[in-house]
UniProtKB/TrEMBL annotation:
<keyword id="KW-0560">Oxidoreductase</keyword>
<dbReference type="InterPro" id="IPR002328">
    <property type="entry name" value="ADH_Zn_CS"/>
</dbReference>
<dbReference type="InterPro" id="IPR020843">
    <property type="entry name" value="ER"/>
</dbReference>
<dbReference type="InterPro" id="IPR047109">
    <property type="entry name" value="CAD-like"/>
</dbReference>
<dbReference type="GO" id="GO:0008270">
    <property type="term" value="F:zinc ion binding"/>
</dbReference>
<feature type="domain" description="Enoyl reductase (ER)">
    <location>
        <begin position="15"/>
        <end position="358"/>
    </location>
</feature>
<keyword id="KW-0862">Zinc</keyword>
<dbReference type="GO" id="GO:0016616">
    <property type="term" value="F:oxidoreductase activity, acting on the CH-OH group of donors, NAD or NADP as acceptor"/>
</dbReference>
<dbReference type="Pfam" id="PF00107">
    <property type="entry name" value="ADH_zinc_N"/>
</dbReference>
<keyword id="KW-0479">Metal-binding</keyword>
<dbReference type="InterPro" id="IPR013154">
    <property type="entry name" value="ADH-like_N"/>
</dbReference>
<dbReference type="InterPro" id="IPR011032">
    <property type="entry name" value="GroES-like_sf"/>
</dbReference>
<comment type="similarity">
    <text>Belongs to the zinc-containing alcohol dehydrogenase family.</text>
</comment>
<dbReference type="InterPro" id="IPR013149">
    <property type="entry name" value="ADH-like_C"/>
</dbReference>
<protein>
    <submittedName>
        <fullName>NADP-dependent alcohol dehydrogenase C 2</fullName>
    </submittedName>
</protein>
<dbReference type="Pfam" id="PF08240">
    <property type="entry name" value="ADH_N"/>
</dbReference>
<dbReference type="InterPro" id="IPR036291">
    <property type="entry name" value="NAD(P)-bd_dom_sf"/>
</dbReference>
């Protein structure tokens, strides 16, 4: 492999509005537990749009930014310590590029809580090995190639379209992990609510149904009602149509709610009223403003509110297997990666239904 990779680079906040430039990046030093991947597909996540627009902080002080953390491609090189992958395998890489391997969470294989996590991009520095010594940062999958730890490159099984696997790597995993943790489809959580029908929410409906749950889709209006039922939802609540009546009608009907939205004023207490006793509401959409929470909403029914961040490589493997069985097919719009400067603003405008997937035709991708 060359010492540089070709990528679409963000150098300032215009990256989110068509300002990405195509050029060279220097990947991390290749180590024994690494793989090189020829990127074929790369999903556009809402976090990519936010990061390229500087919503999480300025770009320039941290050097060039290559976004993309729903990366799918073929292994073209593997290090001597890599035993679970072969050259030619299709793999998926999500929002985490490495972990320290030493903290409590790494030892317990809950690596998404690693205290020294290296995320897939965004100025994140490597925290171990030669890459740490060289003070190198990570780069994502809006590129021709990706290099990183094989631990976080999960093999895509036969039977799963690699293009459909891309949005599962972050968006799908983000909702699958809490659905799994809280027992969706089991006696513990037969009835699952999904708030928001977008990139994350539509996958949450698909995955919860694939796990055997009864799913209630929750959205502000009725414009997405038909889509919700096509995705497999069993019931639908339009919160802005007749809010009080809907919340009253469905009171204490749900065992688990996955909230995928992040409005400035999330009606948290109203949603908690939908939970059955000992039910749980899990936030996966990052709300950047304070939220009001009445303790009585929790105490009366012993309900809880928690969050969840991505998931583990093992959980991603489980999700791939579930999708390969035919029950989970994200709705995607393929776009040539050469047209990324049109796709990013379109994603920001909410035009995807429900996930853009960039295609590297040079590496065998099909639009």
């Amino acid at each position: 492999m060359p010492d540089t990779f070709k990528a679409w680079i963000g150098r300032d906040e215009t990256a989110a509005t068509g300002g990405l430039t195509f050029g060279d990046i220097e990947p991390k030093v290749f180590e024994a537990d690494d793989v090189d991947v020829a990127v074929v597909y790369s999903g556009i996540c809402g976090t990519d749009v936010s990061a390229l627009g500087g919503e999480f902080g300025p770009i320039a002080p941290f050097g060039p930014r290559v976004a993309g953390h729903e990366v799918v491609g073929r292994v073209i090189r593997k290090g001597s310590a890599v035993t679970h992958l072969s050259v030619g395998d299709f793999v998926g890489v999500g929002a985490q590029a490495d972990c320290c391997r030493q903290c409590k969470w790494c030892v317990e294989e809950r690596v998404n809580y690693c205290t020294k996590m290296t995320v897939t991009y965004g100025g994140s520095k490597y925290q171990r090995g030669a890459a740490k010594a060289a003070k190198q940062q990570s780069y994502g999958g809006f590129a021709k190639h990706w290099r990183g730890s094989a631990k976080f490159a999960v093999k895509i099984p036969t039977g799963l379209d690699p293009a459909l696997a891309a949005p599962l790597c972050c968006g799908g995993l983000t909702v699958y992990a809490p659905l799994r943790r809280w027992g969706a489809g089991t006696q513990r959580a037969r009835n699952v609510g999904v708030v928001g029908i977008g990139g994350l929410g539509h996958m949450a409906i698909l995955i919860a149904k694939g796990m055997g749950a009864h799913v209630t889709a929750i959205s502000r209006g009725t414009s997405k009602r038909d889509d919700a039922f096509r995705l497999g939802a069993d019931a639908y609540i339009a919160t802005s149509e007749n809010t009080r009546a809907d919340f009253k009608q469905h009171r204490r009907s749900l065992d688990l709610i996955i909230c995928t939205i992040n409005p400035p004023e999330l009606p948290l207490n109203d949603y908690l009223g939908l939970l059955a006793p000992e039910g749980q509401m899990v936030l996966v959409g990052v709300v950047l403003s304070p939220m009001d929470l009445m303790s009585g909403s929790l105490i009366a029914n012993a309900t809880g509110v928690s969050g969840s961040v991505i998931g583990t490589p093992e959980e991603l493997g489980e999700l791939f297997a579930l999708a390969a069985s035919g029950g989970v097919k994200p709705w995607i719009n393929k776009v040539d990666m050469d047209d990324i400067n049109q796709a990013i603003p379109a994603a920001k405008a909410g035009k995807a239904k429900y996930r853009y997937v960039l295609v590297n035709k040079d590496n065998g991708g099909v639009v």
